[in-house]
């Protein structure tokens, strides 16, 4: 588990350096390509000096063979070098995607705090790809440097001034390239941030499309996305301008440098200090130098974008967990006794509540936020600020969240289905659906209306089903786990009253002798419970049977019967 920025960056370094063998192979091959490119004008110069000047056909053919060999080597070096670099890039991006997925899905949570789902998807895809590209561009940067070294060595052998010009002029040029890339890095980070936010808003709106249409809020939702999209567009345009300025500035610097090299070489040839072949080679090398400098410009731009994306990935990987780890152990098998003592968390204010093993308890609260805070504490998605939550006298804050959720299953109201068959959604990772689950949840009625029954395939998030059908399948999935403690939150809000009464009876029968807590305001569900508690202002203010509370408590009547 990553908890600090330093460890988040360590994960990134591990993903990138884990491909060092492929990067090394790609660097060697790419360096061979650039070295071969640099040798081409040199060999042509030798042909002019030795073969053409001597009028020797055999010498000419021999050096042409050398030239063909150079082209063969540089061609294959580029082909296999690019392949190795791409492999290293994709594998690094894959490792980063896995690391982001593991962090987002970790039982201790925390990575999703303050982020839309679409933003996390963008970090795990687009940003991971940009960071992985570092492994693809580094070999070419090394190769470009190798090309410069070969060029400098050749030029020094021809003329010391030419060689020193290349050797001493390259470092300042690279430093200027680094400085020029700084604005691009900042603009790129903002671009990715705005694009991720736009993706998050879009995913949020699409997931709630039916609700938006139902309440006539499409214009407001469209206006919200339009504003977000325009912000993203402006950030993208600014990043594109920074990219264009970056590339143009580096191209101008490179052109000036190459012109100086060609000018010095021409002056030396005019003074007779180098031969005609050397002049051709020098001019050819001066033209070739544009290639490594262009590569430097491209590498610098990619690294700037990669650094910006790396900071976003590191922020997700380094997000502090919502709850700490634990070494405590729950009994096996657990009896299911649940006790909340003076719990304060969010809207909860010193809540005291005891649920004996095997009880079917109804919980009523008029404030949805109070219900959410209670569910978070029971499922250990958050630890209470004060007080304790215990199962069988063991404090949940001392138990690993994975183990807590093996014993206490919280089935949230907005649970999604997954693409696959109805049976797959109910069964989860179990070998078969336990007997009675489909009947208790009324999901058998859903299966009866589908063309292939429980083998019918449902689309992403179960959108091919109606709201009531999705709710019954989700309830069946929760019941199928046979959790020692099951917490249900409003599991029947989208079904009719007859079906709701059937589900209430079915859940009570199926969960007999196992602890079940139903957080709801449904009279049908509450009537089937052993006991009901009313929570107001974060505390239990009344408890009893559903019928007694309807008769005696005005606040209860208002919450349940209004």
From TrEMBL:
| Segments crossing the lipid bilayer | 57-78, 136-156, 162-180, 248-270, 276-299
Q: How does it sit in the membrane?
A: Multi-pass membrane protein
- Domain ABC transporter: from-to ranges: 333-562
- Where is this protein primarily located? membrane
Residue ranges occupied by any ABC transmembrane type-1 domain in the UniProt entry: 24-305
Specify whether ATP-binding is a keyword of the entry: yes
Using the record for this protein, list the coiled-coil segments as residue ranges, or answer none: none
Gene3D superfamilies from the xrefs? ABC transporter type 1, transmembrane domain, P-loop containing nucleotide triphosphate hydrolases
Which keywords annotate this record? Answer: ATP-binding, Membrane, Nucleotide-binding, Transmembrane, Transmembrane helix
Please name the GO terms that the record assigns under molecular function: ATP binding
Q: Which SUPFAM superfamilies match?
A: ABC transporter transmembrane region (SSF90123), P-loop containing nucleoside triphosphate hydrolases (SSF52540)
| Localization of this protein | Cell membrane
Q: Name the chain's protein.
A: ABC transporter ATP-binding protein
Q: What organism does this protein naturally occur in?
A: Amycolatopsis silviterrae
